[in-house]
Each structure stands twice: as C-alpha cells, then as structure tokens.
Amino acid sequence: MGDDLADRRTFLKFGAALGPAALAAQRSGPNRPYASRQGQPNIILIYADDLGYGDLGCYGSDLATPNLDRMAAQGVRFQQCGSANPVCSPARAALLTGRYPTRVGVPDVLQPDSTTGLSLSETTMADMLKAEGYATMCIGKWHLGSVPQYMPTQRGFDAFYGLPYSNDMSPLPLIQNTTVIEQPAILSTLTQRYTGQAVSFITSSKDRPFFLYMPHTFPHIPLAASPAFQGTSGFGLFGDVVEEIDWSVGQVLGAVQNNGLDDNTLVMFSSDHGPWFLGSAGRLHGRKGETWEGGVRVPFIARFPGRIPAGRVATGFASTMDILPTVARLCGATLPSNPLDGIDIWPLMAGERDTIDRDAFLYFDSVNLQCARLGPWKLHVTRYNTPPWIPIPANWRQNMLLATSELYNLEADPEESYDAASDHPDIVASIRARMNALILTFPDNVQSFWNNITSTAGTYCPSGGWPCA
Q1: Which of 96, 134, 185, 331 is in Cβ range 3.0-4.6 Å of 174 for a Cys bridge?
Q2: CA dist., res. 269 & res. 72, Å (int)
C-alpha cells in the first residue's frame, strides 16, 4: 500500500511536468490500467441536480431506474462517494476543478445577478481535455457564473446548450453557446432537448476523442416532466422526473453503443449533493444544505466495458473531486497547475484496490469548515444553529461551534446516530489536528472564519449574548 501511495503522489506532483505523450506512453505498459488500441478514451459525465443517495433503484429506491441500474450492473457502483459541498454552485466548482470550492472562488450559491464565478485562474476539466485535442460540450445547468467571461464557452467548452443557473431563478434563459434562444425556458421539455443535443454531439464527435458534461436541471424544483413521463411513475411528479432522467441515460448509452464507441468510453453518473424538499437520502441523516451524510453523500456509477469489472461495488471512500485526476490519468492529460484536493481513484473503479489512503477530507458549508473525515471516522466540529438567546441572523442561521465535537464511524454507523467521541479521544484529537493544519492552506477569509469559530468567542453562551464575552 505504501508503494502505491507513493506512486500516486509522485504522479500528482510531477504529472504536470510531463508532456501528454510521455504520460500516455508511461501508461501503455502491461501493468498500466488503460492501454486502448483506439487511443484516448471518450469521457461522459452525467450529473443530476438534488438527486438523493436513495433515489435510484440500485441504491434501494422503489423508483424505476432500469438504465442506471443496468449501468451499475455493467460497471461499478460506489457506496461511499462524497460531494465537496451540500449546495449547487460550490459542488459543481469542486467537480470541474478537483479542488475545494473555498479555494476556487465559489463558496456559496451564485445568483443571477452575481458578477463573479469560478475563478479565472482555475483550470476546468474541459480546459484540461481540450488541450489534449478533445471536443468538449456542456449540456444542462451551468451555475458557475453567468456573466460572459465565466460561461462554459470561456471555460474550456466548445459548445453549450442549457441554463446559466438553477431553474427556480429568474430570468431563466435557455442558451445555445452564447445566444439566448428561449426565455423563459420551457421546463417540461428540457430533459428531452438535452438528450437530443447529447446524442447529436456523440454522433458528430465519434471520430475524435470527446468530453460530454451533462449536468441535468432536475430533480431540482420546480419539477417538470415531458408528457410522455407525466403521471407514469406512480410516485408523483418527482418520480416522473427521475424516471425521465433514467430514460435520458439510456439514450446516451445507446448513442455510445450505436456509434461503435462502447469499449472506448467512460460514462459516469452522479449528483451534486443530497435531496432538497423531495427525494430520499436513504438511511442517511440530513439533506441538502447540511454536512450530515444525507446532504453530502451522493450516488456514483461508472461504466467502462473491458476496463471496469461488471457488477463491482466499491466500498472505499471517494469524492467527486477525484474525477478530474482520474480522468487525467486515463486520458494522458497534463494536470492543472493548481494543486489538487482530489486523488486518482482508478484503482477503486477498476477493482485493483478496496481503499485508497488520503488526508482528511473536509466538509465546508460556505466558508465554514464543519466536519472532516479520516478513514472511517467523521468528526463534526461546527454546525448551523440559531439558539434562542441570540438575535436571528439575516440568513436565518448561524454557524456555531458544537459544545462538544461529535465523532461517527461511517462504516459501522452511516446514519451518524452514535457519537463515539468520548470513546476515542485520540481519534478526535488526531482529526482536529489535521483540520487545523489543512486550514492553513486555504484563503485568508476561510482561515479567519475557522479561527474565530474555534476560539473562545465561538463557543455556546447559554448565559446569554453572542459572541461570548
């Protein structure tokens, strides 16, 4: 294990210094995970909005999701995949950069009138793959900045078809590349139109490597399904919407197969975070906007015939930030110059390893560091709360230091129902020390919030007053 970890760190550190040809040659040997006779693999990343951990059949739902279930049966299904954030924009920023959203300028949900977006100093997955000759397209919800310099066609994507942000925001234009083609966007046919665009892109790009990023608008509310799916699930409009997304996945997989690309295409499916008002987190505690597992654990399925063993269930922990470095390895791409927080999880996908060592994984909400995971252990340190003895904050919640830290063994207790902190003070101290060390690598404002909340002025004050005197 030590040698493997050293090899991975060496790759992440020095990969950017090697040219793509050298990396590809390095990976073409008999012991490398990918050596395709057809060259660079195609990458398809499908990303749902507000889909919960328990909303797919293969994760225990009663909803009919036969295409995603089949995709899991033909590839790998992860039991423990964490989003880097429990709300939309930060989760997407982390996905496309492999870095915590608090590093890349998107700690909070962006609004239609926001003048900022994903930092222009960041390299997106599309930037990385476009530099290797990939055709790139984004179809769906963007939500990483809606002024021109932050939009997809300026962030590595050759083409864009979709919404600039969430479907509950206004105004709501449907945009093709940089042109508004419909306003307000007609929601009931979005999934159908996204799917048609995806199939067309796959077909037109079949003779060169391509990257398709497909972040669906749904099941974020307001919900809308096409007439063909309305009332068909037996679980209301939410069920109809999820089953239409599953249909869309089937159409994308069909286009890959029909164009003869099946054995040279990695298809991945995940969600940005946990469910909102509707949907299921399964047995997990918490929902969207919370750093409990129900808010941050997401479904993650990957299919690559001949490369990923069929029917694999990966039990080791992974993160959506890990997708970028994993894709870089498979495609022989030069890593971004900014240090990554994600790690290469190909050994988990391919069944070569059950776990991969990593440093503490941090859970932020906005600029607030609330929890950290190390191995099976998750330590909660701060949480949003508004005790009755302080004025109600403008945003109706206040991040506060817990009276005592809470420790959960996520492998034995994924519901986070038994606080084991008093039984394992050494683990609490170890994780807390790692949090204190890692926070020093973040921007000043993130460090400031952490220092303030973990000082004596950040504790509960039952006798009255905030902050504590």
Answers
A1: 185
A2: 10
